[in-house]
């Protein structure tokens, strides 16, 4: 039946769907339909089974070789007959450790997948649905058949709709039909049943976008029953690939993996050669192969990219608590490199609590009391009365208004500026409900940032009146008459100059000013109104009525955040549609603009070439009266100066500049669906402070990934050096295969991830932005990793030699002496690697201080891991399993001495190493 709704009238459609358009569905009925039809979403790709995912973990070439080597080792042990569990323990232990690694890997992957899925759900579009007679925002996934959906410019269509009201409604259907131009939609048209999708002008499909006008539709299909469901696609819904950082880590891991494999092959080759030449200790070839392959499995850093993904995903979840939804992980990397933030003013730098504080007719200014959306307060007059201009202005502000105001609850759905007008009208004593019943809206010309006007055509008795609001200078320039307390008089040049001067005066007081006007059409039939909408001269020859002055005070916390940006080497630019004087006053208050600085208007910007603008943006931080095209030019100009740009926006016309910027930031409260879809980040509180918090968190996340990468590399390289040097100097192998795998299990699984949960370092916002072209493993990190790996190798080999050669008076056999040396090396290596995580908390010298133990996750994981290590040594079954012996107090003391040597020398190496460049941002910020 769904495919025939375009061939039905509005009443027939509503009857079929069993819904009253004035009240919409009840919440109970919506819940019933949701339960019956399921959520309004497209089917997701079926996840791989657990068995398949486990099998995929074992496909790695080195793991397969290790299993084969373990089987060969077991076969060699069984040549002389089965002697019990000891013949199988190495093979079983290797398989057991590999299985535990698989479980941890799958758990980590699930955690990352779930985190990313939650983030995707957080950024899903909302729909304005009429429930219980009230328009409310609901998640698009909860939209059901029969829902009455209110549509405005910038909204995504949440489901397939039959249009039942349309006001100059146009929809971009490129995602569905490939049609490049927006398609006009009509409520009153009925289309032939055989009409194709592109010709169904009374329908709107899921995933398409409202580009102009407004309308109301009733949902007739959801989820997989929609046209989008049938072709299994949705606008902009593509799987995100790996981020540049993950690509770098993957490439680095592969390169290092090859080096590790070659080194481990060298270990085996040298050992085999020494056996053949009878140099040093003779080693069992099968054991040597097992150790070499185990070392390769343990040393290859294949998990670095997975660790980075989990850290990114969990860090992004933390941002949600700071009112930031990151839609794309790559934005987190870019945040750390941001040098310029281009911010809108209203709601981002200011409180977005618009309140009309003054009204002006043609002669006088009236003060208005009361704040917020509560309709308490009054228009203060000296003689106890207000002019007819004020009453007419309040009337126009209601009729030319799309906000929905709940006077009893003092709440609003829609633009805060329009809400402030409705509150002012309530103070005058006029309500929207009463006025709209007698002055039905016939048609409208939606607000356009190039015109800076919005107009509606309403019934006024037996004729049509156009009511207009917008920028005062635009209203005044288009006006040929003024309304003077009940009479219409010609606009003279002197009056126009006086009104423009008054507008400048209000703007200099940091007030947002809107102008109001009307135009009568006494000879136009109601049926001819549609022709006026496309008339370029429709908004000419206006009758000026007055101005409303609103205040949206700066957010108290923003000034400090802007100073923090400057400390971090980040410049802040204000880009707004407000008057130049208003913008300059607020920018000066916030510390964006200083005495002697220049502000640039859109008109002045038009006179500049691209080259001139590129030079101009180096010194200009305030741009006023700008259009969407201007915003794109500004972003291009700032980028041309080798900057990484973050750009904020909320309207549908902001989408191009948001897409153009390196980081697009949409407003969560006032932003349109189109803007949110184009953005990389969404601010759920529309607050500039949240951007600064996101930059700080982005820097912290990137720093944590570097710390984890450096930590794992130091440990892995240290293990390779231990085995390599022992082989080269003809010593016994100081670690057995199962011990190498166990070390990898403990250090990769717990401390590494806990290190990724590290909080921000002091001074993280005092550093210059990171150069995005810098490799994650830069010269400084390479030196740091090398120092730690060498210290780890020296300390562990020292413990081995102390047990194998130094403690000769214990009455042990050579085999027992070797086992003791291996045990001391193993204990020192594992404990040192676990504790090295604490010295990896910072890439600079830490010393002994409170910050050493401020990571609760790291503290707990280290204690648990050390407990497991002690259990391996002092529970006889585990000691036998891992080929170690319990250590005496003296032996433990010797191991602890080598551990302290490793930790202190690693930390001292940081103090001795000079970074390649300074990192303090006080050197100045970019423009």
Question: Would you summarize the structure shown here?
Answer:
It is built from 32 helices and 27 strands.
Outline the structure in words.
By secondary structure, this protein is α+β, with helices and mostly antiparallel strands. The chain folds into four domains: 2-40 and 126-231, Calcium-transporting ATPase, cytoplasmic transduction domain A (Distorted Sandwich); 247-319 and 699-760 and 777-916, Calcium-transporting ATPase, transmembrane domain; 324-349 and 555-686, HAD superfamily/HAD-like (Rossmann fold); 355-551, Calcium-transporting ATPase, cytoplasmic domain N (3-Layer(aba) Sandwich). The protein has 32 helices and 27 strands. The strands form four sheets. Strands 10, 11, 12, 15, 16, 17, 18, 19, 20 and 21 form a ten-stranded mixed beta sheet that branches. An eight-stranded mixed beta sheet has the order 8-27-26-25-9-22-24-23, sandwiched between helices. Strands 1, 2, 3, 4, 5, 6 and 7 form a seven-stranded antiparallel beta sheet that branches. Strand 18 (479-484) and strand 19 form a beta hairpin. Helix 4 runs antiparallel to helix 9 (285-299), helix 10 packs antiparallel against helix 25 (688-728) and helix 25 runs antiparallel to helix 26 (737-749). The chain is elongated, with a radius of gyration of 35 Å. The protein starts with 9 loop residues before the first helix and ends in a 15-residue tail after the last helix. 47% of the residues are buried. The model is unreliable at 233-241 and 918-924 (pLDDT under 50).
């Amino acid at each position: 039946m769904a495919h025939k709704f375009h061939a039905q009238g509005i009443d027939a459609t509503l009857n079929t769907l069993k819904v009253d358009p004035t009240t919409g569905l009840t919440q109970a009925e919506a819940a019933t339909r949701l339960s019956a039809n399921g959520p309004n979403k497209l089917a997701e790709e079926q996840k791989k089974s657990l068995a398949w995912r486990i099998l995929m973990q074992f496909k790695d070439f080195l793991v397969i070789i290790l299993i084969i080597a373990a089987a060969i080792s077991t076969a060699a042990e069984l040549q002389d007959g089965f002697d019990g569990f000891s013949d199988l323990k190495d093979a079983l232990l290797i398989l057991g450790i590999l299985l535990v690694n698989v479980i941890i890997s799958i758990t980590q992957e699930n955690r990352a997948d779930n985190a990313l899925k939650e983030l995707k759900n957080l950024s899903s579009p909302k729909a304005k649905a009429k429930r219980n007679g009230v328009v409310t925002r609901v998640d698009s996934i909860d939209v059901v058949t029969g829902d009455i959906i209110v549509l405005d410019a910038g909204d995504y269509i949440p489901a397939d709709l039959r249009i039942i009201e349309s006001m100059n409604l146009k929809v971009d259907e490129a995602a569905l039909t490939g049609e490049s131009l927006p398609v006009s939609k009509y409520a009153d048209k009925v289309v032939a049943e055989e009409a194709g999708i592109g010709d169904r002008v009374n329908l709107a499909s899921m995933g398409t976008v409202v580009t102009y006008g407004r309308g109301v539709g009733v949902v007739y299909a959801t989820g997989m029953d929609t046209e989008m469901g049938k072709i299994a696609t949705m606008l902009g819904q593509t799987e995100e690939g790996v981020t540049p950082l993950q690509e770098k880590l993957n490439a680095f891991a592969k390169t290092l993996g090859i080096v590790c494999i070659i080194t481990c092959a060298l270990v085996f080759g040298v050992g085999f050669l020494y056996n053949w030449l009878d140099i040093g200790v003779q080693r069992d070839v099968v054991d040597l192969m097992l150790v070499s392959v185990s070392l390769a499995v343990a040393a290859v850093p294949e998990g670095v990219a997975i660790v980075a993904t989990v850290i990114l995903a969990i860090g992004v979840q933390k941002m949600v608590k700071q009112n930031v939804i990151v839609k794309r992980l790559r934005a987190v990397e870019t945040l750390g490199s941001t040098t310029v933030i281009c911010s809108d003013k209203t709601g981002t730098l200011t409180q977005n609590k618009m309140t009309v504080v003054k009204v002006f007719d043609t002669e006088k200014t009236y003060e208005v009391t009361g704040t917020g959306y509560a309709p308490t307060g009054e228009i203060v007059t000296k003689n106890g009365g207000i002019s007819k201009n004020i009453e007419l202005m309040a009337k126009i502000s209601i009729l030319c208004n799309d906000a929905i105001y709940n006077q009893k609850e003092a709440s609003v759905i829609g633009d805060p500026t329009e809400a402030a007008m409705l509150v002012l009208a309530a103070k005058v004593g006029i309500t929207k409900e009463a006025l709209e019943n007698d002055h039905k809206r016939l048609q409208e010309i939606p607000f356009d940032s190039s015109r800076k006007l919005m107009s509606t055509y309403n019934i006024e008795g037996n004729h049509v009146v156009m009511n207009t609001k917008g920028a005062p200078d635009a209203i005044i320039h288009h006006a040929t008459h003024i309304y003077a307390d009940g009479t219409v008089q010609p606009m003279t040049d002197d009056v126009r100059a006086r009104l423009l001067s008054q507008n400048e005066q209000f703007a200099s007081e940091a007030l947002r000013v809107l102008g109001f006007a009307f135009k009568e059409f006494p000879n136009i039939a109601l049926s001819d109104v549609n022709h006026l909408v496309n008339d370029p001269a429709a908004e000419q020859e206006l009758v000026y009525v007055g101005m409303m002055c609103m205040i949206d005070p700066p957010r108290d916390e923003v000034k400090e955040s802007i100073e923090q940006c400057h400390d971090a080497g980040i410049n802040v630019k204000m880009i707004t549609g407000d008057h130049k004087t208003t913008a300059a006053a607020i920018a000066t208050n916030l510390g964006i603009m200083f005495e002697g600085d220049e502000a640039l208007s859109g008109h002045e910007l038009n006179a500049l070439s691209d080259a001139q603008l590129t030079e101009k943006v180096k010194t200009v931080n305030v741009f006023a009266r700008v259009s969407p095209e201007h915003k794109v030019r500004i972003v291009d100009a700032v980028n041309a100066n080798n900057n990484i740009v973050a750009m904020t926006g909320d309207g549908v016309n902001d989408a191009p500049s948001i897409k153009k910027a390196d980081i697009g930031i949409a407003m969560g409260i006032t932003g349109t669906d189109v803007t949110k879809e184009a953005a990389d980040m969404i601010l759920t509180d529309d607050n500039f402070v949240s951007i600064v918090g996101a930059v700080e968190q982005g820097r912290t996340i990137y720093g944590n990934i570097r710390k984890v990468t450096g930590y794992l590399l130091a440990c892995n390289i240290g293990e390779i050096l231990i085995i390599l040097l022992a082989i080269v100097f003809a010593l016994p192998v100081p670690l057995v295969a199962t011990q190498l795998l166990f070390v990898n299990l403990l250090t990769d699984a717990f401390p590494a991830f806990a290190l990724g949960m590290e909080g921000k370092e002091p001074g993280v916002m005092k550093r210059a932005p990171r150069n995005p072209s810098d490799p994650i493993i830069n010269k400084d990190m390479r030196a740091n990793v090398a120092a730690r790996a060498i210290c780890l190798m020296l300390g562990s080999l020292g413990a081995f030699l102390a047990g194998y050669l130094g403690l000769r008076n214990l009455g042990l056999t050579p085999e027992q002496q070797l086992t003791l040396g291996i045990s001391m090396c193993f204990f020192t290596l594992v404990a040192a690697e676990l504790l090295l995580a604490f010295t990896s908390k910072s890439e600079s010298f830490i010393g002994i201080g409170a910050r050493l133990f401020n990571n609760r996750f790291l503290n707990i994981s280290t204690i648990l891991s050390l407990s497991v290590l002690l259990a391996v040594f002092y529970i006889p079954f585990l000691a036998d399993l891992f080929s170690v012996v319990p250590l005496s107090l003296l032996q433990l003391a010797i191991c602890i001495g080598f551990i302290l040597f490793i930790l202190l020398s690693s930390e001292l190496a940081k103090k001795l190493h000079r970074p390649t460049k300074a990192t303090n941002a006080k050197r100045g910020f970019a423009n």
